[in-house]
Amino acid sequence: MKEYAGRCFEDFTAGQVIEHPHGRTVTQADNIWFTLLTNNSNPIHFDAHYAAHTEFGRPLVNSAFTIALVTGLSVSDMSQNAVNLGWDEVRLPHPLFEGDTVYARSEVLALRESRSRPQQGVMTFRSSGYTQHGVVVVDFKRTVLVYRRGHLPSATSRPVMQERP
């Protein structure tokens, strides 16, 4: 059985829309750990008493986590074989809360051959993350450098499992 190795530059077309297959429920631990890991001192992410006195009434999920999560949900379909060049036009139109499940979709906006790297192409796409209620919580453009078919880095560096005795 052949393993899925991700899409290459030739596998994308402008206007192509991809609904990413997995959702992810955000936990309180996710929110607190990410907030502490990134040294974000805003109590709206980790102090429930403080957050209860805001217009939201409860902790908000760290927006950098929201961006990272939707990026991650898209990787197997969009950038398994790519290198990030940048994020643009990041918008957070609605807050994300602990306990929400996030889903994602992406649309290919533009493709072009790389002028400096003929073994790769440049792709720009828009990704959106939305909750179990269909509410969009993040929307952004992302540009990546994608390998062309036949130019993927070799997988031969992966160790081979030895047979059991």
UniProtKB/TrEMBL annotation:
InterPro entries associated with the record: HotDog_dom_sf (IPR029069), MC_hydratase (IPR048274), MCH/BMMD (IPR052342)
Protein name: Molybdenum cofactor biosynthesis protein MoeC
Pfam family, one: MC_hydratase
Organism: Deinococcus ruber
Signal peptide: none
Entry superkingdom: Bacteria
Record lineage: Bacteria, Thermotogati, Deinococcota, Deinococci, Deinococcales
GO molecular function, one term: lyase activity
PANTHER family in the cross-refs: BETA-METHYLMALYL-COA DEHYDRATASE (PTHR43664:SF1), MONOAMINE OXIDASE-RELATED (PTHR43664)
